[in-house]
Design goal:
Pfam families (chain B): Actin (PF00022)
Distance between the termini of chain A: 30 Å
Organism (chain B): Naegleria gruberi
Helix content of chain A: 25-40%
Oligomer: heterodimer
CATH class of the largest domain in chain B: Alpha Beta
Largest interface: A-B, 17 and 19 residues
CATH topology of the domain at 3-58 and 76-121 in chain A: Severin
Number of domains of chain B: 3
CATH superfamily of the largest domain in chain B: ATPase, nucleotide binding domain
Strand content of chain B: 15-25%
Distance between the termini of chain B: 31 Å
Low-confidence stretches of chain A: none
Family (chain B): Belongs to the actin family.
Radius of gyration of chain B: 22 Å
Structural class of chain B: alpha+beta
Protein name (chain B): Actin
Shape of chain B: globular
Number of helices of chain A: 4
Largest sheet of chain B: 6 strands, mixed
Radius of gyration of chain A: 15 Å
InterPro entries (chain B): Actin (IPR004000), ATPase_NBD (IPR043129)
Mean pLDDT of chain B: 80
Chain lengths: 147, 365
Amino acid sequence: MSSIEETIKSLFSNKEDTKSIVFEWENGAAVIKTVGVNGLEDVKSALDSTKVQLPIFAVQSIDKDESVETQRTYFVQLPFVGENVKPLRRRDLGVLRNSINSTIDNLKAGHIHVTMEITNVDEIRVEELEKRLLTACGSHKPKGFKW
Amino acid sequence: PSMIGRPKNSPNAVFQPQHEFKCHIGEELHQFPFRYDEFKPIISCGIVQDWDEMIILLEYCLKKVPKFDMQEGKYTRRVVLNEPLLNPIKNKQKWFEILFEYFEFHSLVPQVQPLAALYASGRTTGLVLDVGEDCTQILPVYDGYALSNVMNKMRSWGGRVGGGDLTKFVANLKYESGWEFSNSGREISKKIKERLAYVAPNYWKEVELNAESSQLSRTFELPDKTTITIDDLRFKCGEVLFRPSEFLGVDYVDGGIDDLLINTLLKSPIDCRNDFSNNIVLCGGTALMPGFKERLELEVQSRILPPHLPTPKVNVIQQVESSYLSWIGGAIIGSLGLTTHYIFSREGYMESGVDINRPYSLNLS
């Protein structure tokens, strides 16, 4: 099993500390740029405006009642094309996305719940992501999310 | 530009035995505009008007491609055909015929221009507004899948609105005010449009400002070194896109560009509207006009309110390479390892002709 597959499994397993992975496309293959333990914050610091990247990170839902506390993990993908990426290099996003998504499918590791395409860090809108996550949660309606 | 000029019978004109050298093409025309009998646009409203001239243009373009051997390349190269939305079937068939039978290319990947432009901007979801020279078209794409039931072109009884109409508008207005340009008039009007025209955030405020003072006036130098003053024409030219019926005197079925955009947004499924309004990708040279992006944002934000747009946030994306975005997208698509679903081979064409019913060119995911 390649290091990419192992890292994806560790992100989706919920048992390990891995909370985010940022992928890049180099020399015709996907590579891991960073692996973080703080979710969205790590992703924000890893984004590079001169590159095409594919971050995936985990979000914990907070659902606490008087007697019961439920925690579920959701996964967000942020396909990122930096503002300074050369026009013809933007094609890397399509192949990188297909490559990583098919690896996730083949491993049957889990599902990406929400995808938001961005070109800079300011476009990551937590409120919008929360709205989309709530829609993706189905009948489970958590009271909030831990970012 | 895709234009051909036939030289006048003058001592300066260059005549060669081969038919392709009897005419001048594209930028060559602008060097000596007075030498030609006529400027003939080959493509109008995204549709080829004269196929013989189109073959000459394609041969000319292929000769300009560095390191491209016509004899060797034609059997091995794949061609990406960037076609406009709602391209007539006959036009499609003719393209297949020419590229496979006359040029004998190996394979063909047809693709619609707005989808290629979206791909070039690095997105798979968005609303592409392509304001080109000949026509204005709009296509919503969600996760690589085009919403073909919502796509649209700006239509009127007289044609479609594009940058060419603005050039004609400038030429007509200058003619009315006493400036009569000769053959080079179109080129001069185009330069005036490109250098001085802009889209005003509020048209009537601009009219008032222009009446009160001369701060909006600019001078433009003609090739014979005389100068002309351009004032209200600067913002009227941009306003044509938003109120074409008023300025061009023709009834436009879908109204202005803002109406076209808003109607398309409202026709889209409500769950997708926020994604579209956050990713309105501009494409085409006219979309680079100063103030165009801001005016569009203003119009959409003020005219679509909740609940029609769940989150009233509008983001219009205007890139420096907007003019070439479709071409860049085509280049990207050509370089990808596509599956056979997207590729039409010459072998298949020679065997069974064009299967025009085969669904193609609308999905890329």
